[in-house]
Design a protein that fits this description.
By secondary structure, this protein is mainly α. It folds into 2 domains: about 190 residues, no CATH class; about 120 residues, no CATH class. The chain is built from 17 helices and 4 strands. Strand 3 and strand 4 form a beta hairpin. The longest helix has 18 residues. The N terminus is likely disordered.
Length: about 325
C-alpha cells in the first residue's frame, strides 16, 4: 500500500449533484475555486463514526466516495453492504490515523491553494473558453495516490504533500521521491494531471523520445506561464544548483542526445531514463538533475513559442506534431 507510485486516475464518471467549479460553467474572470473538504468529512466518519458524515459522503460526494473506495483504496464495491465497516477498518490502522491527524492539522486552511487554483483556471479559461472547470476536493488516500481526475472533478490527497522532511515519508520513500511531496507542489500537480486528462498523449502513434519529451515539456511550459513561475527550472522542481548545472551543460546535453540519436529512440528503458523520476538522469552522471528529458522538451517548446507568437495555448495543447515543431525552429540548446 505504502509504495504505490504517483498515478493519474482518470475515471469517466457522470457527475450527479455537482456543479462546475464554484457554480456552473463560467467565464474566465468569474472562476472562483473553493476546495471541497471531503477529507474532513471522511475523517469525521472513520474517527467519530458519524452517521451524518456518512450520509453526506453518499449524497453530496457520491463520485468522490466511489473513486476513493473502489479505485484509490481498492477496498471493495461502494454498494457492498459491508463497505462502511471495511472503510472504517482500513483507516483504523494506527499509522494511517496519525497521518490523517497530521494532514488535517497541516491543511486546516486552503485559502492559498484556492487562490492559486483560481488564478490558474481563470487564465486557462481565458485561453480556452470551452474548458470545463472542475469541482476540486481534498481527500486522504493513505499515501495511495496524489491526484485523481474524473469527469468534472479533480481531487488531491493532502497526506501526499506533508513536506519532504515528514518522518513517515522517510520510511517508505526515497529522498528524490520526497522532493515532490511538498505542499507547494499541490497546485502544479493538479494542473498537470488535469491537462493530461483533457489533452492526453496520443499513445496510438508509435512515439519516440522527442515526442514524449516535447509533450511533457509543453505541459510544464503552460503551467509555468499560468502560475507565474520565475523559470521553467523552478516549475519542474530543480534547485538553484540543478538549474545552474543545466545552464552550464546546455550544449553538452544536446550534443549527447543528437550524437547518440536518442531523439528517435523508442526503447522503454531509455525513455524511462530521460523522463521518469530518479535521483539523476543516469546517462549524464550522478551530478545531473532528474528528468532531463522533461527539461529538454520544455526548452524546445519555449523556443518554439517565442518564434511563433501567434500560437495560442489552446493551439499548443491541440498540436502533437512535435517533429514539425522541432524542424520549424532548427533547435539547438
Amino acid at each position: 500500500m505504502w509504495c504505490k507510485s504517483y498515478i493519474l486516475l482518470v475515471c469517466c464518471l457522470c457527475l450527479a449533484a455537482c456543479e462546475w467549479g464554484a457554480g456552473g460553467e463560467k467565464k474566465g474572470t468569474d472562476v472562483d475555486i473553493k476546495v471541497c473538504r471531503f477529507d474532513k468529512l471522511l475523517s469525521e466518519y472513520v474517527s467519530l463514526n458519524s452517521f451524518s458524515a456518512l450520509q453526506k459522503m453518499n449524497t453530496e460526494y457520491p463520485q468522490e466516495t466511489k473513486i476513493l473506495v473502489e479505485d484509490v483504496l481498492t477496498v471493495g464495491e461502494v454498494d457492498d453492504d459491508r463497505i462502511n465497516s471495511l472503510l472504517k477498518a482500513y483507516y483504523a490502522d494506527s499509522t494511517i490515523r496519525v497521518l490523517m491527524q497530521d494532514a488535517l492539522e497541516k491543511f486546516g486552511d486552503m485559502k492559498d491553494i484556492e487562490r492559486q487554483l483560481t488564478k490558474g483556471f481563470r487564465r486557462l479559461k481565458k485561453e480556452i473558453p470551452s474548458l470545463k472547470v472542475p469541482r476540486v476536493y481534498a481527500q486522504i488516500s493513505a499515501l495511495n495516490q496524489s491526484v485523481v481526475v474524473g469527469d468534472s472533478i479533480l481531487g488531491f490527497s493532502i497526506d501526499k504533500y506533508m513536506g519532504a522532511d515528514y518522518p513517515l515519508y522517510k520510511k517508505y520513500y526515497y529522498d528524490y521521491q520526497c522532493r515532490t511531496m511538498e505542499p507547494s507542489r499541490i497546485v502544479l500537480d493538479c494542473f498537470m494531471y488535469y491537462l493530461i486528462s483533457e489533452y492526453p498523449f496520443p499513445w496510438e502513434w508509435n512515439r519516440s523520445l522527442v515526442d514524449r519529451m516535447m509533450y511533457s515539456g509543453k505541459m510544464h511550459w503552460i503551467i509555468s506561464r499560468i502560475l507565474d513561475y520565475d523559470s521553467l527550472e523552478e516549475e519542474i522542481g530543480y534547485t538553484k544548483a540543478e538549474a545552474a548545472w543545466c545552464e552550464k551543460n546546455r550544449k553538452e546535453i544536446w550534443n549527447y542526445v543528437i550524437q547518440n540519436r536518442h531523439l528517435d529512440a523508442k526503447d522503454p528503458m531509455l525513455l524511462r531514463m530521460y523522463l521518469r523520476p530518479a535521483p539523476c538522469t543516469a546517462c549524464f552522471g550522478n551530478d545531473s538533475p532528474f528528468e532531463l528529458g522533461v527539461w529538454i522538451g520544455a526548452q524546445i517548446i519555449d523556443v518554439y513559442m517565442k518564434k511563433n507568437k501567434e500560437v495560442t495555448i489552446a493551439g499548443l495543447l491541440e498540436d502533437n506534431d512535435y517533429r514539425k515543431m522541432l524542424a520549424d525552429i532548427q533547435f539547438k540548446l
